[in-house]
Amino acid sequence: MLGKLLDSFHALGISGWPLLACTVIVITVFFERIFFLFIVNRPVNLKMDPSKVSHHNSVLYALVHEMQSIKSLPKENRDEIMSISFTIAKRQLRMGLGMLKFIAAIAPMFGILGNVLGMVNSFTIISQGNGSINPAMVSAGLKEAMYATSTGLMVAMPAMFFEYFFGYLANSRIDNYLNYINRLNVKIEINSHSEAKKRAQERMGMGVVSAASGGIIKTTIKRPSSSALTQIKPRTGGLSQKLQNIKDNEN
């Protein structure tokens, strides 16, 4: 089995090494994305309590921690900060997909390169012949051309499939986490309004209590009625009456 693989690899010619490198990269990205999207960053229930988000769910845990740390800020500022955080999260969830897309485009090019080189080798051998063409003379070059083309397509097709598949999963995780963070943001906004209203009521209550404890006493001065004023009679006599009495006594 190993011998056949080595023979097939040698049949690829010079394009065998870049195609082997592309194959290794595709396999590595495949297992890394499987682990990252299915084990580390699984979808979550939108009603799950934020305190139950595991740190193993690295992307969502970072988003929830970021939201909890800025919950005291106004909603506009929270939205701006979380948009930046989601840009970073999206980059993490789509990591490696650009490489798969690149390999899906370049692997057939390496296959075509091997095809051309194989055909060149075949025509070179034919040109060096003495007029008689033996099929065995050109079989090696044709084998290299066909192997390189087919191997390039065999590498490019899985890379293209994995790029679309993992891209779909990444977008699904992003939508799931975005809905969860939006739901959490709404809860924070409702709680902030409730706390502000409660603090306003407490300040009003403290103002009433402080006014009462400060001894603010309101007195009302009643204006006397007209009947009471008529009952008050001016005092007659006084100093003028005493002077008159003194003059009478002198006389």
Structure at a glance:
The protein is mainly alpha-helical and 251 residues long. It has one domain (2-40, 51-198).
Can you give a write-up of this model?
The structure is a single chain. This protein is an all-alpha fold. The chain has one domain (2-40, 51-198). 77% of the residues lie in helices and 0% in strands. The chain is built from eight helices and no strands. The chain has helices at residues 2-11, 16-40, 58-69, 75-93, 97-127, 135-213, 226-231, 239-250. It is rod-shaped.
Write the layout of secondary structure elements.
Elements: H1 2-11, H2 16-40, H3 58-69, H4 75-93, H5 97-127, H6 135-213, H7 226-231, H8 239-250
Shape: rod-shaped
Radius of gyration: 47 Å
Strand tally, please? 0
**Helical residue percent band:** over 70%
Structural class: mainly alpha
Keyword list:
251 residues, mainly alpha
